[in-house]
Specification:
Strand order of the largest sheet: 4-3-2-1-5-6
Number of strands: 19
Largest sheet: 6 strands, mixed
Number of helices: 10
Helix content: 25-40%
CATH superfamily of the largest domain: Creatinase/methionine aminopeptidase superfamily
Order of helices and strands: HEHEEHEHEHEHHHEEEEEEHHEEEEEEE
Number of domains: 2
Strand content: 15-25%
Bound molecules: zinc ion
CATH architecture of the largest domain: Alpha-Beta Complex
CATH class of the largest domain: Alpha Beta
Length: about 350
Amino acid sequence: MTRIEKLSKFLPEDSAALVLTPVNRFYLTGFPSSAGVLLVFGGRPDKAVFFTDGRYIEAAKLAVNDCDVQLSDSSLARIKQLLADEGSVNVWLETGITVAELSRFVQGIDRFSVSAPDGLTEFLTQTRAVKEPAELVKIKEAQAVAQAAFHHIADYIRPGVLECEIALELEMFMRKNGAQASAFDIIALAGGNTSKPHGVPGETAVHPGDLVLLDYGAVCGGYRSDMTRTVAMTHCGECEREVYELVKSAGEAAILAVRAGICASEIDKTAREVISAGGYGKEFSHSTGHGVGLDIHEAHTLSAASTAVLAAGNVQTVEPGIYIEGAFGVRIEDMVVVTEEGCENLTSITRDLVVL
Ligand code: ZN
Ligand code: ZN
């Protein structure tokens, strides 16, 4: 079944969906565009239409196979006509659209009942969370590029090099080696800056004895990867090593707990218990992980508040960390695919402390 067919099956017969967010349009049509509308009718997948503008129309006609492709104009007349022809009563939009987009459609197609119910977004989120084999191929490709970049950067980092230079070098390496882009703004932090989980790489230089935290990923075929390694420059202090080993044990315990059918909050609890037992519970200040795919953060969040249950095909990060204000921080992040029996770890870079 195509993704458009799945959505059509989910929608009630008197309803239609207008998919407006670029990420969901890409997921459903396989075509990347910054503008467009995908119209899908409940129970009639063959009637779906992807409207896009003159910048994309030629490429879209060649690339989109699962629905009709039509040139959009600035009015919503054509969409209104199709909705009327198919007898749609309700028109559903995603919850992630802007207020301006919502008001444009509420006013522009006022003969229909337009709303943004949670159900549509939830359906797309949950469908996207279970990766198909072809999606896993792209995520693995992105991870392979990121891992090659790790080996490259381990040779590159030396005393005196700046955080921003490390970030640039990682990005250039990934782009030169098959990545479309960096998966998100690269985090490369040295010394005292490592205590800020999402610090921004700046002019700080690496010094002997520093920890260096590298959190980055690549994009291949629209799909992202995500990994973090914390390495030491020339040598590692005793306290830093103790914290490193604790974070490593927490991650390993959490990865062992991952399997289809387990509650996402259980994975978080597993990691948190190890870190709390080691005396650093308060210093583990973020959730244990998140889903990765077309977006860098997508379902499921591995946190105490999560009610999600993991399913085979989910791609999740497991990334406990300890951040000691004014001193240093350690995070180790792996990306795994959930299976019925456990998980497949997509990150094969050593979890042992690397001293450069
Ligand atoms: Zn990360
Ligand atoms: Zn992450």
